[in-house]
Amino acid sequence: MSVISNLFTPDYERHEGVRPINIYLLRLMYFLMAAFVATDAWMTIINHEGPWDRFRAIAFCVWAAYPTLAVLGLIHPLRMLPIMMFTIFYKSIWLLIVALPLWQANALWGSPAEPMTKAFLWLPLAIVAVPWGYVFQNYVMSSKYGARVTGRQR
Question: Quick one: 40 exposed, middle or buried, by C-beta within 10 A (0-12, 13-18, 19+)?
């Protein structure tokens, strides 16, 4: 079998039936989070002077925490999927409620939202990286997961 076809063949031995291409893309996403988001957030936190605006502070604390935890995704890409789902969810909401109305009003480019929008437009890469069948089976349909949450067997 060729290297290319191996990338798209589910790997039941090492990755619970997830295709290696998804594992590589997840690791890339975790690396990018740690390299760019965590670095920028931590530098802002460390170099900040004076009192924080509470909303700006919470944003930077979240932006420092989740990509720092994403480093674990380099080792355990499937176990850290909730961080990737969180990323996809909050960026999608932001693009829909902040960027889209500005874009529709032809007011996005040149606005304070423009830099964030440009960064969030990489969202499709994260969406493609996630093995959605695995997510559905292990987070939505799994009786094992339901038993852990409720504390009883199904």
Answer: middle
Q: CB–CB of 67/37 below 8 Å?
A: yes
Residue pair 144/154 in contact by the 8 Å Cβ criterion: no
Q: Under 8 Å CB-to-CB from 6, ≥6 apart: which residues?
A: 20
Residue 14 φ then ψ, to 5°: -105, -30
Tens digit of pLDDT at every position of the chain (154 positions): 687 777 777 777 777 889 999 999 999 999 999 999 999 999 999 999 999 999 999 999 999 999 999 999 999 999 999 999 999 999 999 999 999 999 999 999 999 999 999 999 999 999 999 999 999 998 888 655 555 544 444 4
CB neighbour list of residue 111: distance below 8 Å, 6 or more residues apart: 102
CA-to-CA dists, residue 95 to 67, 88, 99, angstroms? 19, 10, 5
CA angle 124, 136, 89 (to 5 degrees): 40
